[in-house]
Design a protein that fits this description.
The chain has about 80 residues and is mainly beta. It is built from no helices and six strands. It has a six-stranded antiparallel beta sheet, with no helix packed on it.
Length: about 80
């Protein structure tokens, strides 16, 4: 199960199992999300791919999930 949240900078993030992902790109009907920790010292390569609002691929992280979900989940319609 996953949801969408809004970051402090107003970006839409995907939230799954207390890991946060930022939308990297959209190609045809597939959306590619990368871990928000990718640009930090941990250089996490965790990824999620979604098609029509369903997760079709998920990879592992090299760090622990967020201690708590700090953001309120929002409903997104027609994101992809």
């Amino acid at each position: 199960d996953f949801g969408y949240v809004v970051s402090q900078k107003g970006r839409i993030l995907l939230l799954k199992d207390r890991y946060y992902y930022v939308r990297e790109k959209c190609v045809h009907h597939k959306t590619y999300w990368r871990c928000t920790q990718y640009t930090t010292a941990s250089k996490c390569h965790g990824r999620v791919h979604t098609v029509a609002g369903k997760i079709v691929h998920s990879s592992t992280h090299n760090h622990k999930p967020a201690a708590q979900e700090r953001k309120q989940t929002i409903q997104i319609i027609n994101l992809e």
